[in-house]
Every structure is written in structure tokens, then in C-alpha cells.
Fold this protein.
Amino acid sequence: MTVAAPSDQLIVAISSRALFDFEEENAVFESADDAAYMRLQYDRLDQPAKPGVAFRLVKKLLAFNADAVKRVEVVILSRNDPVSGLRVFRSVKGAELGIERGVFTRGRAPYSYLQPLKANLFLSANGDDVRAALNAGFPAALVYTQTARDDPHPAEVRIAFDGDAVIFADEAERVFQKHGLDAFQTHEADHATRPLPPGPFKPRRPEGQGQDEAAHCAGDGAKRPGARARDPHADKLEHRRRRSDVPRRLLQGAFSA
């Protein structure tokens, strides 16, 4: 398999509990101790773990490597011990997932391994680990193990990003938090012609994609300068509607990125 250039490769670190359904085992860990947890994992060494909440997402991400070019790498980054890691990788093999690397810290905080792994994103079912990664400057997200498992788009990867402080910088959000909605609207109206600076998840336009294509991806409203975002629940969400009254800077920021 050909490996894509480091700048073009997405590396996702994920906890074993987000990838596989280890909720029963985790309950033993929380109610007893790590020794009981290790014994249970060892006793179930030959029992493949069930898919977890993020399992389908990982399969979709790894499908980007289907043409023998390794564009995405998924690395397991877990607080588990190496014995539990044996079961994890046996489950990986049984599920035919293209995962080759894993770090099992045996209780140590995982975020310190994100830099050596050159991870672009960390997904975990442990809220403390996610917060620690974010505080250390790494993009991270919490995987809710209670999330519904239904997948209406089995062949697509769909990711929704917030605009403020994610795709774009948080300068407008800071005005809103400090001075309120009216000041926010005034600030955005005064700066409507200046694109928003990029945020931590600055989008990268694919090669050859022009402004017209970018506008099409942003939706029909982006094709008309000054078009206002339409909220189908505007009668119930007046507060949110007013904040979306000045979308031009979002569109300008998307084009400049």
C-alpha cells in the first residue's frame, strides 16, 4: 500500500471503548478494580468485541484507503493494559479493520501520546481525556456510548462543524459573549466585508476547486452575496435567527480559506 504524504494523511487516534462496545467490561472496572477488569478481558480473549459507537465511522474513514493509497490511519490510543490490548487487536483482526498501531497506557493520560503519533484528531468515550487533549491544544471529541446505532447514510462520512471558533476564529463569538446580541450584530455589520480569520479547523479547498464550486458546496444561499441563512424553526429560535442575520463574513471566510 502506498502511504500518502504526511501533509495529506489524516491520523485519527481513538480509544478502544469508542471503537468497541466495552461497556460491560468498563462497569467491572468502575465497580471493582483494574485487576478484575484485566481478568475479565483475559477470559474473553477469544471473544470478539462488539462494534462500538464509532465503529462505523472508522470503517468509513478507512474506506478512503480502498485504492491502495493510505490517506487515513486510525491508531488505537487507550488507557487499557497490554493484556486488554490483545483482545482489542484480535477484535480488530476479526472485524477486518486496517488498524496496525496501538498505544495502551495502562491508566496514564493518553493526550501525551498524541504528538508522537502526529494525530490530527482524538476520539474517546472518556470526557476527562478529551478535555485534557483539548487543553493541550489537540482537536478532540467525546464519543457518547449511548448514541443510537442507526446509520441512515452507510456509504457516506458526514461531519458537522460549528462556524464560530471552529472553522473560523472566535472574534465574533467573543463579542457576543462579552457584550450581547446587539453588539454582536453591530460588530458583524461593521465588518461584513472583511472575511473571518481561519479557526483551528480551517478548511482546505481541494486542488482545482474554484470559488463557484466552493459556493455550491456551501449551499444555495452562498451563491448570492449577502443572502441570509434561513432557519426553518425561526419562529421558535428567534435568538439564533438574529445571530444568523449577517452570514456574509462566514461566506467570505470560506472563500478566502
